[in-house]
Amino acid sequence: MAWRIGIDIGGTFTDVALVEEDTGRIAIAKLPTTPLDFGQAVIDGIRRSLDANRIDPVDVSLLSHATTVVTNALLEHKGVHAGFVATRGMRDILELRRSSRADLYDLLQDAPAVLVPRRWRFEVTERIDAQGEVATPLAEEELPALIEAIREAALETVAVSFLFSFLNDAHERRVGQALRAALPDVVVYLSSEVLPEIREFERASTTAVCAVVGPVLAAYLDRLQSAISRLGLPNLQVMGSSGGVLDIAEALRMPAMVVESGPAAGVIAASLAGRQLARPNLITFDMGGTTAKASVIANGDVSVTAEYEVGGSGHANRWMHGTGHPIRVPVIDLAEVSAGGGSIAWVDPGGALKVGPHSAGAAPGPACYGAGGTLPTVTDADVMLGYLNREALLGGALPVDLAAAERAIETAIATPLGLTVPEAAARIVEVVNGNMAQALRIVSIERGHDPQEFSLIAFGGAGPVHAVSLAEELQIPEVIVPPAPGAFSALGLVTSDLRRDYSRTLYADLGSLSPGKVAEVVAGMEQAGREMLRAARVPPERQVLLRQADVRYRRQAYELTVPIAGGEITGATLGDLAEAFHVRHEQTYGHANRAEHVQLVNLRLTAVGRLPDLTLAQRADPASARMRRRDVWFAGTGFTPTSVHWRDGLSSGNQFAGPAIIEAMDSTTLVPPGWQANIDDLGYIRLAPMSLSLRSAQ
Fold first, then answer.
1. Cis peptide leading into 326, omega within 30 of 0?
2. pLDDT at position 525
3. How far is CA 105 from the centre of its chain?
4. Does the pLDDT of residue 23 top 90, yes or no?
5. How much is the mean pLDDT over the chain?
6. Residue 315 pLDDT
7. Looking at residues 110-126, what average pLDDT do you find?
8. Which of 19, 141, 410, 550 might form a disulfide with 601, Cβ 3.0–4.6 angstroms?
9. If pLDDT is split at 50, 70 and 90, which confidence band does 68 have?
10. What pTM was computed for the model?
11. Which of 428, 353, 412, 311 is nearest to 76 (CA)?
């Protein structure tokens, strides 16, 4: 028997998921996250899972991990002392940024903190022009002084980013060679190695991010890998933000690639679920303890973007330009809001109820956890309304302090607003649902998708509690709750393929571009991708190379990414690429202009090492079947006697109408009045309005 293990660190809990390759049997464990040492909960969870399931470490075939170390280091400004070397006259590029602002009319808003202080930003005389030609030779005589300045500042890393180095990297390579030879203990990141793409600020920012967080990630992974090796487990794989896993060496070469690794894993698991259920159109909804994330899978394709910002505003954000530090790496297209089970409810000076962005986190956590929390959270409201078990969570492992939840809501919300405690709790849920519905609108309606043509797949510890309310808000006809929803992102880690993304700038009109030039650049990236897959010992039959291009109309500032067909690249290939861009542009923005010239900006290649597919299924245990009742609050009826079912005891074909609650160790599913729950052959919970269920049965 071979097992795969995935570990996902969240703001409140660390999840460990195990899947047996032959049978698809799933086992999970949830432990409180250990903020002072994230690796402690990881190792404790692995040990506990191996012991509980009697698994020998030699039977583990894959060990994958999603880490928040990179994101946390940027958000908390805990990166290392890094230097930055630029073309003379460009040392302040990290501070000058772009003109985009988070709030156009706020004249007093603070710019994000600069990654590298000015005293550690250096200049070298050199210049490559926009055609890739040497305009000013590299001043070799300046390098000894640069090396000495870096040595005196005791810098741990250095980022080097010269103008137009993506066209000609000779000067960057020479400076990198000199620094690495003279300062062997200093890690050097070259922008031409990290991101050989157009746009000087984004390239410089991405390279600087790698320099600031690289040693932090290296120290964490080194400690973790050492502990894992002592357990006799295979080498650790790290989840990348684009939806594939990397080995440790690849992750350290490009630390920016693991910024959003946890949320990416959940979307990959949802994609697998969609294939199993013949549901190619899915809106994913992942609500954990700190944030809620949404993404779209359309026609079976996971949406990936090359634009992302992290830090500055206190969180990672794809949509608020100007709030943080841009990183130009492929990232699964997510909308993220500060709305999780631990999000704190509060009343602003104007008397309006707010939920988030601050979270109770893992310590002390919501008031109902009985660990010292005194501020009301979404979880406290869910407990008060009966959506969550009022006695214990995590299958009885986490006792619930109902009185503490009631005191917190009464003191901070009910009394100031003149409400009863249940009314205040219901208002908290309404507000947080409104916040999360906005994230779903961003990835669906604002991206040209009709939510009525999609199913909502809900996961995360709190996702299935709130999913139906969001589906009603956006008129989504079906809600799917997968197996082990509370650890679904961890499950995604064991279904993710090995993946590495490459890119090169090739800036020209498609109509005048030589197909041979495109083929030459693509061939170079394909060779690098095949070498990476061979080094990872991926069998040839599981190696896949996917081509894409960033394309735009003339005078546009940003591009759309569209696929390039396989096979020989010809004039017809470029014509098909232009037409694919017109179609994507019309879908995204509502219009297209086929008379306008189309420009190619970047060529991209994704090298994928496919893993054998797993079947994710919930295996019923009839002996554990049980049903009881408790009062649950619903709009319009107030507290209503409601049946409560234990999910592990539900078999294929079971169905019941709401109101109902389905409890499991890792998550709770709410079935409100007017909705019906069905358990399918794989153990997925399928929720639909009663009106639709009746029509489909006729």
1. no
2. 94
3. 30
4. no
5. 89
6. 42
7. 89
8. 550
9. confident
10. 0.83
11. 311
pLDDT classification of 311: cutoffs 50, 70, 90: low
Residue whose tokens read 């947080």: 432
Nearest Cα residue to 581 out of 554, 544, 545, 546 = 554
**Measuring CA to CA, which residue among 419, 534, 373 is closest to residue 32?**
373
Domain boundaries in the chain?
498-609, 622-697
DSSP-derived secondary structure for 4-27? EEEEEE-SSEEEEEEEETTT--EE
How far apart, in whole angstroms, are the C-alpha atoms of residue 272 and residue 414?
43
The DSSP letter of residue 311 is S
- pLDDT tens for each residue of 496-535: 888 888 999 998 999 889 999 999 999 999 999 999 898 8
For residue 78, the number of C-alpha atoms closer than 13 Å in the C-beta half-sphere is: 10
Tell me what pLDDT residue 320 has.
43
* Residue the block writes with tokens 């394309």: 551
For residue 52, give every residue at least 6 positions away whose Cβ sits within 8 Å of its Cβ, in sequence order, or none. Answer: 27, 29
pLDDT above 60: residue 312: no
CB 460 within 8 A of CB 497: no
- H-helix or E-strand containing 277? helix 261-277
Tokens of 181: 């030879």
Q: Between the CA of residue 50 and those of 223, 230, 491, 655, 694, what are the distances in Å?
A: 20, 14, 16, 34, 45
CA atoms of 688 and 698, how far apart (whole Å): 15
Give the whole-angstrom CA distance, residue 486 versus residue 482: 9
Q: Is 382 helix (H, G, I), strand (E, B) or coil?
A: helix
Residue 621 has pLDDT above 90, yes or no: no
74-101: burial string, b at 16+ Cβ within 10 Å, e else? bbeeebbebbbbbbbebbebbeebeeeb
Whether 498 contacts 472, CB under 8 Å = no
Res. 241 pLDDT band, cuts 50 70 90: confident
Contact 13, 394 (CB under 8 A): no
Q: Which amino acid belongs to residue 510?
A: L
Give me 212's structure tokens.
């600031």
Structure tokens at 510: 């498609």
Residue 452 reports pLDDT greater than 60 = yes
Span 643-654, mean pLDDT?
92
Percent of the chain with pLDDT over 70: 96
Distance CA 337, CA 210 (A): 25
Helix (H, G, I), strand (E, B) or coil at 161: strand
pLDDT exceeds 70 at position 102: no
Confidence of residue 336 (pLDDT cuts 50, 70, 90): confident
- Rounded to 10°, the helix 421-443/463-474 angle is 70
Closest by CA position to 585, among listed 553, 538, 563: 553
DSSP string spanning 57-114? GGGEEEEEEE--HHHHHHHTT----EEEEEETT-TTHHHH--S--SSTT-TTPPPPPP
Looking at residue 185, its pLDDT comes to 94
CATH number of 498-609: 3.30.1490
Environment class of residue 548 by beta-carbon count within 10 Å: exposed (0-12), middle (13-18) or buried (19+)? buried
Beta pairing, strands 301-302 & 498-509: unpaired
Instruction: Give the HSE-up count for residue 252: Cα atoms under 13 Å, Cβ half-sphere.
Output: 16
Confidence category of residue 408, pLDDT binned at 50, 70, 90: very high
3-state helix, strand, coil in the chain (%, to 5): 35, 25, 35
Per DSSP (E only), the strands in 227-328 are: 237-239, 245-247, 282-287, 292-298, 301-302, 304-305, 308-310, 325-327
